[in-house]
Amino acid sequence: MKLFSLILSVIVFFIALYFFAIKIEYVDTLNDIIYVSLLIILMAICIVGVIINWEIFTARKKSRIILFVSNGFSKKHKKNL
After folding, report:
1. Residue 71, phi then psi, degrees to nearest 5
2. CA pair distance 39, 32, nearest whole angstrom
3. Has residue 46 got a pLDDT over 80?
4. Which of 2, 50, 61, 64 ranks highest by number of CB atoms within 10 Å?
């Protein structure tokens, strides 16, 4: 679920950035200013979503470490009679 949220945040960020880049040249009225500010808020929310879900990559790196420890002192020795 976190991976889906991360991917969705990244996709929505780039879509909002695309519409922001198109609309920024034609800001004339108050409605345009409100629309552009809402796009900025949406991009900020997406950035927060990416920051929250960024721990997926660090958790996977930590879980892949497998450590085998062998200790020569704890081996059982057979006694010859």
Report:
1. -120, 120
2. 11
3. yes
4. 50
What is this structure's pTM? 0.67
How far apart CA 79 and CA 81 sit, in angstroms, is 6
Residue 53 DSSP symbol:
T
For range 16-27, the mean pLDDT: 92
DSSP symbols for 33-69: HHHHHHHHHHHHHHHHHHHHTTHHHHHHHHHT-----
How many CB atoms are located within 10 Å of the residue 26 CB? 9
- 8 Å CB contact between 42 and 20: no
Q: What is the mean pLDDT of residues 71-76?
A: 62
Q: Quick one: tokens of 23?
A: 């609309």
Name all contacts of 31-35 with Cβ < 8 Å and 24+ positions apart.
none
